[in-house]
Write a structure and sequence with these properties.
CATH topology of the largest domain: Aspartate Aminotransferase, domain 2
Helix content: 25-40%
Number of strands: 15
Largest sheet: 7 strands, mixed
CATH architecture of the largest domain: 3-Layer(aba) Sandwich
Number of helices: 16
Strand order of the largest sheet: 4-10-9-8-7-5-6
Radius of gyration: 22 Å
CATH class of the largest domain: Alpha Beta
Shape: globular
């Protein structure tokens, strides 16, 4: 007898092209079809419950089932679902959200808001703003961008060119010219030497930025882009002082600093923004994911007032930013974002991420009793557990990614959803996580790692 779950399984196999996954995997094993969700839990079409320890994809900050967001979106759809912001048109929710975002980012010094639909588009917007900013200021030669290896900035061609993960780039080359990559500030494994302290890594990694700027010529470098914490690259948590040093180096050489806050924004790192956690004031900030907690797609690129002012001037066609997306400033998405931000503020979720995140990290460190656990690190409700073949030498598994996915699959069978980056297990649960739910995640991971190790 065919059940509704069976029908959905077969329909997916026959109709859908799954992102970031070999289709043979889906064709062989089928998808996990989710049916409903509440809080930090989701249920699939067979009725099985899972604790979502990855907030879907780094983004369900307020958790599932928030009726306030549903009501706000529904009310706006009934009144004015959408109207283009091209030609100077606007809408009340988009205006109110821009005001709110500027209030929230006042400590970071932001002055203007430009809307898009996804994190990739927010980053793409930042690159276009940066390049045209220098042209408008008469420095057209400043067009290059410096990023980091293992960085993830999106899938559009510009954002992908900044991304430092070769698996995401190789099949789409040649990419956009003008992008350079330096070493990331990974304190567990890096190219700066063995046995370095975190302070020494902070100095070495930031000096790599200085050397790259000088090698390229400061007069050719438009901006440096960095995630405060590198997410999809394996939750690379920077050492104290690293981002502040990078910020000062950018100022020294007149290079813009773009903070990609797509993952770290809106409470994830224990403060409202990753930039605030690490004490920096960027020139441009990119937001998505936690902006609406995934209820409706939306993103935003914010910049300092002086950057915006470089686009003001005579109607020559040279100062106008000829860029935008069909759904920029979508009224329904903006209404959802406002309701989402109100929840984050009312429930003080950044503080919960800080307090519960500290407890969660302490519990994750108990996994070090397993010989294959090499590194446990995190900030707020963002954490990593790196699995290694030899803890003493930090030797990786061969081939890379041969163990992490096995642990992920076993954890999923046991009812917890995580995301492996090869052999790094990454965690970013909803910011409403409780200590009891943190214990639930760690208990499952303890069992999954132990069972995989014995096989």
């Amino acid at each position: 007898m065919t059940t509704p779950a069976d029908h959905l399984d077969q329909a997916h196999r026959q109709s859908l092209w799954t992102p970031f996954l070999r289709m043979e995997t889906v064709l062989e094993h089928g998808p996990v079809v989710f049916d409903r969700a509440e809080g930090v839990y989701v249920w699939d079409s067979t009725g099985k419950r899972y604790l979502d320890a990855h907030a879907s994809l780094w983004l369900m900050n307020v958790g599932f089932g928030r009726q306030e967001i549903v009501d706000a979106a529904c009310a706006q759809m009934s009144r004015l679902p959408f109207f283009s912001m091209f030609q100077g048109y606007s809408n009340a929710p988009a205006i109110a959200l821009a005001e709110r975002l500027l209030q929230l980012t006042a400590p970071e010094g932001m002055g203007r808001v430009f809307y898009s639909d996804s994190g990739s588009e927010a980053v793409e917007t930042a690159f276009k703003i940066a390049r045209q900013y220098w042209k408008n200021r008469g420095q057209a030669g400043k067009y290059k961008f410096i990023s980091r290896r293992n960085a993830y900035h999106g899938v559009t061609f510009g954002a992908m060119s900044a991304t430092g993960m070769m698996s995401n780039r190789r099949m789409f080359e040649p990419l956009v010219p003008g992008f350079r990559h330096i070493a990331d500030p990974n304190c567990y494994r890096n190219e700066f030497g063995t046995g370095l302290s975190e302070e020494e890594v902070a100095v070495a990694a930031s000096e790599a930025l200085r050397r790259q700027i000088l090698f390229e010529g400061p007069e050719t470098v438009a901006a440096f882009i960095a995630e405060p914490v590198q997410g999809a690259g394996g939750v690379v948590v920077p050492p104290a002082g690293y981002l502040q040093r990078c910020r000062e180096i950018c100022r020294e050489y007149d290079v813009l600093f773009i903070a990609d806050e797509v993952i770290t924004g809106f409470g994830r790192t224990g403060t409202w923004f990753g930039s605030r956690t690490y004490g920096i004031q960027p020139d441009i900030m990119c937001f998505a994911k936690g902006l609406t907690s995934g209820y409706v797609p939306m993103s935003a690129t914010l910049c300092r007032a002086e950057i915006f002012e470089a686009f003001l001037g005579p109607a020559t066609g040279r100062t106008e930013l000829r860029h935008g997306n069909t759904y920029s400033g979508h009224a329904t998405a903006a209404a959802a974002a406002l309701a989402n931000l109100a929840i984050i503020e009312r429930e003080n979720l950044p503080e919960n991420a800080r307090v519960v995140g500290r407890y969660f990290l302490e519990q994750l460190r108990t996994l070090e009793r397993h010989p294959i656990v090499g590194d446990v690190r995190g900030v707020g409700l963002l954490a990593r557990v790196e699995l290694v073949a030899d803890r003493a030498t930090k030797a990786q598994f061969t081939p890379a990614g041969s163990v992490g996915p096995k642990v992920q699959r076993r954890a999923q069978e046991l009812g917890v959803i995580i995301r492996p980056v090869l052999d790094v297990l990454t965690f970013s649960p909803p910011l409403i996580l409780t200590k009891a739910q943190a214990d639930e995640i760690v208990a499952v991971m303890d069992q999954a790692i132990g069972e995989v190790t014995k096989v």
